[in-house]
Amino acid sequence: MRTLVLNAGYEPLSVVSSRRAAVLVMRGKASVLAEDGGPIVSPTTLWPRPAVILLHQYVRVVRRRPGSPSRRGILRRDQQSCAYCSGSADTVDHVIPRSRGGDSSWENLVACCGPCNLRKGDRTLGELGWSLRVTPRAPRHHAWLPQELDTPHELWMPFLEHAR
């Protein structure tokens, strides 16, 4: 089980194991806001199994601009969906091929399925008569959120309404 960690200002900070969350609660660094499953049993005490915890002290988070694009980042940005056919994406494609002067930037890379990537090869979209479903761009304000929040646990939903 994973646990959502909220900063002292109730903003999502990270997702940790329930064991790590229990340690934070036991040491007095956090409070349990939502419980999940049976309690954690120690020789002297029963502790609630945390699903969401709130840190007592605010942790300053440095939010940087998105760095250089990676396969994982492109697939996450495009929600694992092919930019050409809307199928399930498993690779990344250069919209303007590198052989034609295209660079490896957020604006030139899109998620792509294997068959579309093979069909496209080193041709441009104009040569194929294809178009993109979306305009590729660098991720914005929510790029720093943990990847586990892409498919959140149902107990986390009330705490994430203002984060998106």
From TrEMBL:
Protein origin, superkingdom: Bacteria
Pfam families xref list: HNH_5
Alphabetical list of Gene3D superfamilies matching this protein: 1.10.30.50
Domain HNH nuclease: 69-118
Signal peptide: none
CDD domains: HNHc
The name this protein goes by in its record: HNH nuclease domain-containing protein
Protein's organism: Nesterenkonia halobia
